[in-house]
Specification:
The protein is of the alpha+beta class and 474 residues long. The chain folds into four domains: 4-148, no CATH class; 166-215, SH3 type barrels, CATH 2.30.30.60; 223-314, Alpha-Beta Plaits (2-Layer Sandwich); 317-457, Jelly Rolls. The chain is built from 15 helices and 16 strands. The strands form four sheets. The protein has a five-stranded antiparallel β-sheet. It has a four-stranded antiparallel β-sheet with strand order 9-16-11-14. The chain has a four-stranded antiparallel β-sheet with strand order 10-15-12-13, covered by helices on one side. Strand 12 and strand 13 form a beta hairpin. The longest helix is centred in the first third of the chain and has 34 residues, at 66-99. The radius of gyration is 36 Å and the shape is elongated.
Length: 474
């Protein structure tokens, strides 16, 4: 077996090959183990060359043997580059654990500086070159390169500032200088955004550092949502605001704190603008909640006899027929059948807090909400759970129409309401004449049972601990 100390070049090269193989074969998920293994191989590499009489802090002393002298010089320079690589990996591991994905950019910058120091040190210690002259020459070269790469260097240092101050992180949904999208990556030159159209926008870091940045993902549990509506000027604002307040109460997706609100924004020549706004917990549901608010606003304005057209008013006498036209389960009926139902409907008013239909009750009529907001609650393990809220155009009591089973939920008026009732016998007559009505009722029942199951399965979000202990954990 050859003596280890007489063949340092062979064994040191073997260590470098083993290091390269293990680094590429080891799973990336176990990064700490990879870095630890590389650090151990570096220590072994250092022990081999030092025990062979090769010091990275001085020029090799190998006598007249040119091959040995060349090999010792290569090992000395290799030690400095190997040390720079290992140190960069250790720094990168610490940065990734401390600041997450943003550590990639800082690791690259620190690694470049470390390698620059290693090259200068190798030139001074191993090659015994005049470092002062080298530094002076490199300084001139650095000035020339700095002027030539001014824009690129601006992006690099802006990237460092962005990763240090963290106005946004990977997976945040942000808006930079009018460009909105989800952050995919932040590298040494630019920020990559995935826009809502599915395209990728690349924003230079220097532009992002100077632009106005709107982070839509912060705070993480509160995101604003608002819509604006145009209503004719001849409608009294109080009527509109009352209908919009019922719109806000009709959505259980909005947070209670801060409280949602509606206000009069501006008056034009013929139309006035109103705005309703609130906050939601999940940014991903923003579009869905906005669509829901538009639909609820339209229904509650119509229920209040307000049209968004220039004439501005809906005749109260047509309200019953309008309700029948809006109810999905009656869409298959002919005009004569709808008119017959509308004439047979009777209106009943409920005050806020009054129970419209109790759990276990078997109603004798199908109920259609004309105005107001109804809260639907079901029995849970720890008490009543709100399964949803209903507004104008929605129906109650479909279970009784199908098979005379009692209601599984409790329906309570959140605001003052007007409920139209359709006699059970008349509803079942429509079901016999039109199978589509029966199918629609079964579908409505299935949807509501699914909503009840989801409400029972939903768990409250855990409360994050704040204060001093939370700061220490972070």
């Amino acid at each position: 077996m050859p003596d280890l100390y007489r063949h340092p070049l062979l064994w040191s090269a073997l260590v470098l090959v083993i290091d390269a193989l293990l680094w590429h074969l080891a799973p990336w998920q176990h990064r700490a183990a990879r870095v630890g293994l590389r650090l151990g191989l570096f220590v072994l590499f250092s022990a081999l060359i030092i025990n062979a009489g090769i010091s990275p802090l001085q020029a090799p002393l190998q006598g007249d043997d040119s091959v040995a002298h060349l090999g010792a010089t290569a090992l000395g320079i290799g030690w400095w580059l190997y040390a720079a690589r290992v140190f960069t990996e250790v720094i990168g591991l610490l940065l990734m654990r401390r600041i997450g994905h943003s550590g990639h950019l800082l690791q690259d910058v620190v690694g470049a500086l470390v390698f620059l120091v290693a090259i200068v040190a190798a030139a001074g210690y191993v090659l015994e070159l005049p470092v002062k002259g080298l530094l002076a020459t490199s300084g001139v070269v650095a000035i020339v390169l700095g002027l030539a790469l001014q824009s690129t260097l601006s992006d690099v240092f802006s990237g460092i500032v962005l990763n240090t101050t963290k106005p946004y992180q990977v997976d945040d949904w942000i808006q930079i200088d009018g460009i909105e999208g989800k952050v995919l990556d932040i590298d040494w030159r630019s920020t990559h955004l995935l826009t809502s159209t599915g395209s990728t926008a690349v924003v230079p870091n220097s532009v992002a550092a100077k632009a106005k940045i709107v982070n839509l993902s912060r705070p993480s549990n509160m995101h604003g949502v608002s819509i604006s509506l145009q209503v004719p000027n001849n409608i009294r604002p109080r009527r509109v605001l009352d209908a919009l307040d019922r719109t806000l109460q009709g959505s259980n997706s909005l947070l209670l704190t801060p409280a949602p609100k509606a206000w009069f924004k501006d008056a034009g020549e013929s139309m006035s603008e109103y705005v309703i706004s609130g906050f939601i917990a999940e940014l991903s549901s923003k579009t869905e909640v906005r669509n829901q608010l538009f639909d609820l606003a339209h229904r509650h304005l119509e229920a209040a006899g307000i049209s968004r057209q220039l004439d501005g008013v809906i005749e109260p006498a047509s309200r019953a027929r309008t309700l029948i036209n809006e109810v999905k389960i009656f869409r298959s009926l002919a005009d004569e059948e709808r008119e017959r139902l509308a004439q047979a409907m009777t209106a009943q008013q409920y005050a806020a807090g009054q129970v419209v239909l109790g759990a276990g009750d078997i109603p004798e009529s199908l109920m259609v909400i004309a105005t107001g907001v109804i809260s639907v609650t079901i029995a849970g393990e720890d008490g009543p759970i709100e399964a949803g809220r209903m507004g104008p155009g929605e129906v109650m009591g479909e279970q009784s129409m199908l098979d005379d089973t009692p209601s599984k939920a409790r329906f309570t008026a959140l605001t003052s309401c007007i409920i139209y009732r359709v006699d059970k016998a008349l509803t079942r007559e429509c079901m016999q004449q039109r199978t589509e009505v029966t199918q629609a009722l079964h579908k409505l029942q299935a949807v509501r049972e699914q909503s009840s199951r989801l409400a029972l399965m939903a768990k409250p979000a855990p409360i994050k601990k704040g204060g001093f202990l939370g700061w220490l954990k972070r």
